[in-house]
């Protein structure tokens, strides 16, 4: 039954609205931050789907509910969600909770704006360009372009579309009729978004030519050269190579300099999917893994992964200075982008992208960077590498552990239902299912690594 104390409407009592939001923020701090990042709490309070539906009471009714009921629903939503900020959440390539990044997200959600024009988002239009400039400088470019995208997959799709448009600009008007059979090249360890992008853009997955990788998961440049020649012999036109810096499963870094040599010989667009590994550029110790990235035409980089900037924060960076993004995607809608405004219309960047409404993703990274400094973020990367090495060495010491093991699905079910931790698994090549350990949470310690190994032993002692 609906309570008589209904949620205040937007035009209602401002004191009641303030009270509601303060109460919600209190719940967030208690449940999502304090408990959600505590090693003494569960990563998740697992419920089977039917039970969870009942607990959440998901059905939407015609009558509103009381403020007390709404607050309890907020608490339940957090309680039964997976705590990705937990130090023992290793399941995805994002983990951890950076307080400054969270502060940025709260501010942007509260302001509820879209950075398509300077007049509607002056602070964020300028801030986005400054952040993109900093990321480009780390890649090794003194100029260029870029935009924040909804994720690494979309960044990769943008790169494919831009490379195609640069080669065949008529395709913007004439579509696929303007194109010969095209071929793009990527390794067998690439992210699945490359195939998705080829399908989405109408190229078809047959246009994706798979290049062999070595035993460590790195693209073999000699096979790339072979695949290009094979595609040409079959009547296709090569136009793009997508290399990977930090593959999803093995964390491999493709040899970018050698791949760039191949692209230069054949006149191909070089895209680097550095969604996972791009943040390594902040580390003087480890940035050599991306040697040659400055020779790329485009780079995808997700600070919401290894830097823990919070979802979503994904940048597409371009070396291009010819306004390619806008030429490829722009249509100068008169109600948004008239050219006779009272300020420099070059600041209206929204016509660069396929979206109209777009989230503000730069503030969370900007605020975190302001607080930590480049040195603090570098330490975050170096710590992740140190903990990964520690994990490998500890595994080697323990009887009953291998770097690839077949009992992963059983152990995954047990750990999730207990809520003690969460790790993803998958097969790879001739190997069966094995755990893919993600070391990204900036609060992670050697003690958490020890807990991980001890917990795997405990959960699997009867197997």
Automatic annotation (TrEMBL):
Record-linked InterPro entries: PyrdxlP-dep_de-COase, PyrdxlP-dep_Trfase, PyrdxlP-dep_Trfase_major
Keyword Endoplasmic reticulum: no
GO biological process: carboxylic acid metabolic process; taurine biosynthetic process
Description of how the protein assembles with itself and partners: Homodimer.
PANTHER family (UniProt xref): CYSTEINE SULFINIC ACID DECARBOXYLASE (PTHR45677:SF8), GLUTAMATE DECARBOXYLASE-RELATED (PTHR45677)
Family: Belongs to the group II decarboxylase family.
Protein name per UniProt: Cysteine sulfinic acid decarboxylase
Lineage of origin: Eukaryota, Metazoa, Chordata, Craniata, Vertebrata
Gene that produces this protein: CSAD
């Amino acid at each position: 039954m609906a309570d008589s104390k209904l949620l205040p409407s937007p035009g209602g009592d401002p004191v009641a609205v303030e009270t509601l939001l303060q109460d919600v923020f209190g719940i967030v701090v208690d449940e999502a931050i304090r408990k959600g990042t505590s090693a003494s709490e569960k990563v998740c309070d697992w419920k089977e789907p039917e039970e969870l539906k009942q607990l959440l009471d998901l059905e939407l009714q015609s009558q509103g509910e009381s403020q007390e009921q709404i607050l309890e629903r907020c608490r339940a939503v957090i309680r039964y969600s997976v705590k990705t900020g937990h130090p023992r959440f290793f399941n995805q390539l994002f983990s951890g909770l950076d307080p400054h990044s969270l502060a940025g997200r709260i501010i942007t959600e509260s302001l509820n704006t879209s950075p398509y024009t300077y007049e509607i988002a002056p602070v964020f239009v300028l801030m986005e360009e400054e952040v993109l400039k900093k990321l480009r400088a780390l890649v090794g470019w003194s100029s260029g372009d870029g935009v924040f995208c909804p994720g690494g997959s979309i960044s990769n799709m943008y790169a494919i579309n831009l490379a195609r448009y640069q080669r065949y600009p008529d395709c913007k008007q004439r579509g696929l009729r303007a194109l010969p059979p095209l071929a793009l090249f990527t390794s067998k360890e690439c992210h699945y978004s490359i195939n998705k992008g080829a399908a989405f853009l109408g190229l078809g997955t047959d246009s994706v030519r798979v290049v062999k990788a070595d035993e460590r998961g790195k693209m073999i440049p000699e096979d790339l050269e072979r695949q290009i020649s094979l595609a040409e012999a079959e009547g296709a036109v090569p136009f793009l190579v997508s290399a990977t810096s930090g593959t999803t499963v093995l964390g491999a870094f493709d040899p970018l300099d050698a791949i760039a040599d191949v692209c230069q010989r054949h006149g191909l667009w070089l895209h680097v999917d550095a969604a996972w590994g791009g943040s390594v550029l902040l580390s003087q110790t480890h940035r050599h893994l991306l040697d040659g990235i400055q020779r790329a035409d485009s780079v995808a980089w997700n600070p919401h992964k290894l830097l823990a900037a919070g979802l979503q924060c994904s940048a597409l960076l371009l070396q291009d200075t010819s306004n390619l993004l806008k030429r490829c995607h722009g249509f100068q809608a008169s109600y948004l982008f008239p050219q006779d405004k009272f300020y420099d219309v070059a600041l209206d960047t929204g016509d660069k992208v396929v979206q109209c409404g777009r989230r503000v993703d730069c503030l969370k990274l900007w605020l975190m960077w302001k607080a930590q400094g480049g040195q603090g973020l570098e330490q975050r990367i170096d710590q992740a590498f140190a903990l990964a090495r520690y994990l490998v060495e500890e595994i080697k010491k323990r009887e009953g552990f291998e770097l690839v093991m077949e009992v992963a699905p059983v152990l995954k079910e047990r750990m999730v239902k207990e809520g003690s931790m969460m790790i993803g698994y998958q097969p790879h090549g001739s190997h069966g299912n094995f755990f893919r350990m993600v070391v990204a949470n900036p609060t992670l310690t050697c003690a958490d690594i020890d807990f991980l190994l001890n917990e795997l032993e405990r959960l699997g002692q009867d197997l």
